[in-house]
Amino acid sequence: MKSSMQSAEDADSKDVIASEESATRRRWSAGLPRVATVHVRGEDALTRAGLSRHLVLLPWLMEIEADVTQAADVCVFGVRGTGESLPTSLKRISCGPKCRFVLLVDDAWETDISSVVHLGVRAVLWRSKFSPRGFESAIRSAVEMSDLTDSSRDALVRKISQTRRQMLSPGDGVTGFTAREIDVLRFLAAGMDLEKISAAMSYSERTIKNILYGAMKRHKLQNRTHLVSYAIRAGLI
């Protein structure tokens, strides 16, 4: 009985995959190369396996192994944490001026967007908002974008920056920081110490410290300098 149930489940899974593959063919049959090559990189095996699994559902893509990375049309790169070493990693695996990358990043990702776009990044996906359709769309964009003019590169930087700001936003649609937190961060960025900030905002120094601690904890940041840098990179102050 167990074997029979398992067989039925396997058959259902195959039907779902076949249906998704058929839908994919219908959606992307026009205007795309018959086969585009993709190489998957990730800082952990689970990320690589998950991305590879999604590629199986896209019949117009062919995943290639690491030893032929130079020939890939697109490299999908899973990044963990803030991505501090990302530019170095991209340079190491770059396949030349036409190399195109799709990044999968954490919410804490804060690499300078302009620098990675210059290194070939054409789309960025956030793990917390990942979807198969978004993944497919990102790869399609990367396949279609090779050489960028200065204006199109600037437009792409603005687009990714806007998406990152949206990712910092909670469900109410405002910024990922409260108005009070942003005020404190602006004062910090202007070089004011806690005593002057508490006087300017009519709060105790303990309250200011609690405001900063709450923001650091929520965004998983290490210290006040990291917090201010994070807010600046996100365009919040």
From TrEMBL:
<keyword id="KW-0614">Plasmid</keyword>
<keyword id="KW-0238">DNA-binding</keyword>
<dbReference type="InterPro" id="IPR000792">
    <property type="entry name" value="Tscrpt_reg_LuxR_C"/>
</dbReference>
<feature type="domain" description="HTH luxR-type">
    <location>
        <begin position="170"/>
        <end position="235"/>
    </location>
</feature>
<dbReference type="Pfam" id="PF00196">
    <property type="entry name" value="GerE"/>
</dbReference>
<protein>
    <submittedName>
        <fullName>Response regulator transcription factor</fullName>
    </submittedName>
</protein>
<keyword id="KW-0804">Transcription</keyword>
<dbReference type="InterPro" id="IPR016032">
    <property type="entry name" value="Sig_transdc_resp-reg_C-effctor"/>
</dbReference>
<keyword id="KW-0805">Transcription regulation</keyword>
